[in-house]
Structures are given as structure tokens and as C-alpha cells.
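TEACHING EXERCISE
Course module: macromolecular assemblies
Task: Read the component lines below, then compare them to the predicted structure of the full complex.
Student: A.B.
Group: 4
Components provided:
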Amino acid sequence: MKQFVVIGLGRFGSSIARALSEMNFEVLAIDKNETLVKSMENVVSQAVVLDATDEKSLKELGIKEFDTAIVSMGETIEDSIMITLTLKELGVKQVIVKAQNDLHSRILKKVGADRIVIPEREMAEKLAQSLASPKIFDFIEVSDTYGIVEMVVPKRFANKTLTELQLRDKYGVSVIAIKRKIPYSKPDGSTDFKDEVIIGPGGADDTISGDVLILLGRSDDLDKIKKL
Amino acid sequence: MKDDFKDLLELSDFYILSQQYDEAIKILKKAEKLSKVDPKIYYNLGIAYEALNEVSEARDSFRLALKLDPELKSAQEHLDRLIEE
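Instructor-supplied answer key:
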């Protein structure tokens, strides 16, 4: 099983440690602040009070045995740079670091960080995108040119079979799944619905208003269809 | 009038169950003109809007249903689901 070490237990660090723990991964949580460490004691496999800028302490902890380290130091940029450098020198395979700005990010890349996250910016971009296209729920980049988009079926596409829609011919995208709400009557007489996913729908499958289509295609083709 | 109102609500159930959500909304708007005090109008409106992924309208409808009946658990559950964290 993968083992993670989370260094810095502020809001971001503690959230990621909690989430990984809930997924049943082994998580070691580190911070020099005793109160923060105490609050994670019953959440993660192990929580330790330690100054992670101290290379010797990290070494003694057997840090190189961990697959991934997540560095989330809120206070000082210098600390996160130092810790990243140390972790890489000690042989941690993957080091993911929270950066505060572009300059910080550039330095982290130079000292060997494998992945850099700027959570506020990523969240803001996602929110902006969802505000710009409220009918687009998600976009996943598969490669530089291909992606998967989750979008509510445009009104003019509703009540047609996939063969009739000709999405591959007209827009160059494939429907890989349809998410649908299936209504039912509850024992008390009220109506409700449950979610159903049709995986790999065929040409004879039709769409209903409110369906969510999961489409795979080139990013520029997906951009076109997103505007419908 | 009472019967008309009841019929409209039943018809809206039928349209929802047969996945004709736009029709259900039309009928419920008619019912609303007859009476605005039955939480079921707004609950069904919420269901129809949610099924169409008209999230903001769905939220407003479930809120109205809860205003009329704060104990309406299913409306609260739908509303909670529609308020993203």
C-alpha cells in the first residue's frame, strides 16, 4: 500500500492528510506545532511533532521509505524550499509542494519538486470555468490534445438517438457514457429519482432532457460542442 | 378548484415519472396560480428542475417547499445535495 507523509498541517495539509486517511492510505503527518499535530492524532496513522527543516530528524524518521511527500508550509517560502531539497536528497520518490506564487513555484521546480500546486489559483480557475459554462460540470485533460468533458445535453439534442445526433461525424467527439436521473414513486406517494450511468451507449440509445453526456474528443472539438 | 389543483399535482407526478420534465414544470406553474401554500408544488418543481440540471431553479424551489413545510426531509436532502461545497 502507498505511504504518504504530509509536512505542514495547516488548512491544506490537514485536509489532504484527512482525505488520504479516509481512502485508507497510511499517512504520517508532521508539523512543529503541537496543537496541530494533536488535532490529527486520531485521524492519521501517525502524527509527529517535528521541525521538518532539520535534515537529521527527517532521516531518523525513515522518510525515504515513503512513496510520496506532500509539503504544505504556509509560513515561509524558504522552509518549503529547504524541505523539498532535503526530501529529494534523502531519496523520496515523489515530492508534491504547495507553492504560494509563480516565483516560489519556479524555485521549487529547480530544487526538484515533482509536482507543484497552487490551490487557490486552481480552485479559482475551476470556479471561473463553472461560472462561465454552468452546463459543463467537469473537464479532464487526457493529453495535450485530448480531453473528457461532462456536459448537460443541449436542448436541441434531447429525445434523439445517438445515431441521429451524429456527434462523431459532426463534432468529432464520442459519447463514452450518459448519466441520467431515473424517476420513481416513493411509498409516501412523492416522487424522487436515482442516478443511473449508461456506459458505452450504442447508436440506438437516446438522450433525454437533463441527461449529462460524458464526451471524449480533441480539446478544440470539445470547446466547440461546449458552446452549443 | 380544489379538485383541479389536486389533478394538476397528480398530473405533474405523471409527467415527472415519464421523464417529461418540461411538461411537469408547465403543469406545476398552472397549479401555483391556483394555490401557493402546498409544499408539494415546489417539491415537484424542485425535482423537475433538478432532473433538467437547472440547479439554481431547483434550489429555489426546494427552499420554497421547506419554507411551507420545514419538516419536509426529502426537500432538505435534495437542497443539501445541490449546495456544493
